[in-house]
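Reopening this ticket.

The earlier resolution said the output was attached, but the attachment link was broken on my side. Pasting everything inline this time so it's all in one place.
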Amino acid sequence: MINAAHGGNDLGLDIRLDLSANLNPMGMPESVRAAAVASAGCWESYPDPMCRELREKLAEKLDEDRENIVCGNGADDLIYRIASALKPQRALICAPTFAEYGKALRENGCEIREHILRESEDFVLTERILGKLSVVDMVIICTPNNPTGMTVPRELMERIAAECEKNGTYLIADESFIGFTGREKELTALNYLGRNTIVLRSFTKLYAMAGLRLGYAVCGSRAAADSIASAGQYWSVSAPAQAAGIAALDEEDYVSKTVSLISEERQFLSSELSALGCKVYPSEADYILFRSSHELGEKLLAEGILIRSCKDYSGLDGSFFRTAVGLHDDNEALVCAVRRCLDG
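Inline output:
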């Protein structure tokens, strides 16, 4: 066993390279780190439970109403708060996708229906989903999807949002990885933000802030935002996380460099893994889904390299793996190790 419920070395394995978690390989921006540390002077007081300054800055950056923005202890926290606050009777999720959607919904007594993404279509979301939207109260779509890395085409997202609005169905668009695409403004569901639409974002991945935990939801209505904000713990975002988030929103050059690095290294890694006989699927995110021998994960672990086994994802099996796109030296180390594992 190389992974528990998620990526990251949560089993405390002896490794030298962790490519199982999809974090920005450039590391946390220094301004963000400095802001978190500088907030130490207020750690003896409770943090602002409303995250007023952070929400104001998000509202300005996104051109959205501050009152429709809810901040949380990572996007994962907000997934559970959404399920608790809105309490859908029936929800539609894709398969494969992030497991916490299903877990949060089940814990709130929701019946879950799966829309199967086909390997023959490279796990891309297609118009097949449109006919399933009228019989559920909520649909959750991850774009780019985890673990496939594929985005929802703009025209399809517009049609999904319109159908959900017509049917009174909540559309939850998880855009935690959209900052890596370089096409955020084109692809975001914020372009179609109706009353029933909620867009989730995370600081964790793009700004390498996993230990600080910070995410936010942009809601199409004040009522939904108030309901979600009331569902969770009162002080859900720590003072250092709020300070780090405020600083991160100014890091536009860092994001631009990240997009260029990920694009270049993703192409390199995809090409090299394909040349080794792996089946590599298209991705627009900072990770790649590929298929190889079932034993590859354990063999790489023996070399001190951890990737994400996808056998616990609905619709996948033990031959599917996800690797983060790292810095070039790390990607080369992975390719060399995969070559040794498959040759020997």
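Reporter confirms the inline version is readable. The chain is about 35% helix and 15% strand. The CA atoms of residues 44 and 239 lie 10 Å apart.
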